[in-house]
Amino acid sequence: MFMATANAQEIKREMIVPPNWFAHYANIVNSYTTRFGPTKTNDLYLEYELMGRQGIFDFYGYFDMPKFFGIGSDHLEGIWDKKGTRLFADFQGRMSINGLIGKGQIRRGPFREFFVSTNYVGNFASKPNASHVLWFGLGTNINTYSKLDLNINFYVRKTFTDFGSVNEHSVQGYRLKMKWIYPITSLFNNQGGLTYIGFGDYDFNLGKAPKEYPSNNIGSNDAFQLSNVLDLSYKRFHFAAVARYWYHGGGNKYNGGSFPVRTNGWGSYFIIGYRL
Known about the structure:
Blueprint: E1 22-34, E2 41-54, E3 57-65, E4 87-96, H1 97-100, E5 111-124, E6 131-142, E7 149-162, E8 170-187, E9 192-204, E10 222-234, E11 237-247, E12 265-275
Antiparallel strand pairs: 1-2, 1-12, 2-3, 3-4, 4-5, 5-6, 6-7, 7-8, 8-9, 9-10, 10-11, 11-12
């Protein structure tokens, strides 16, 4: 199903969050040939994005409203459709272990800070098109001794519902997540800037298969996605272009049968946003 351009706004712009600890944005996103399975999908939708850090807590999240403007692939059912996805949510929360034990960031060595990390992903729709998954584990910020900001998280997957897969209501699967941010240059008299952002997820041991026909091997035990983002920001507005590659997108794969899926390949996003 949709998996909403999931993470289309996982761009996580820490470097342009304003001085106050909380920031939120209204974005219009145009996605093209996204491959979260089982078919390539286009969509034009509205997104609410929020981020910030306060003390030992760091978070990032967004709500997507698919096909909000009534524009998108014919097979896509969105917020206004009876059986469509009403809302897609992705929230990443981290708690600093350094701060919890009264320590600051580490200035020397490869690791700058350690975290307890969580990532909730929810597809709010009527059954069987609903999915609610919680990833939980540990994370760290890497000391690169440069302008490059790099962090890594390793998660275990707790599945509640997952589009009718046999892995529902289980603890199974792992994810390695990496994010990196590099400020290319400041612009507009230092009131904005151009930034490169990348992030990648590798999932494995997912245990996915449809309940109705488990021998119809559409589900994949692994999946990979890699995103490359150019983000241009200025005061309250930002613009972004994203190129993303999927392998077994959404944990689905081509099964060579009567229902071929197209979850390997490239897709793109174009985003315009306003800071509220």
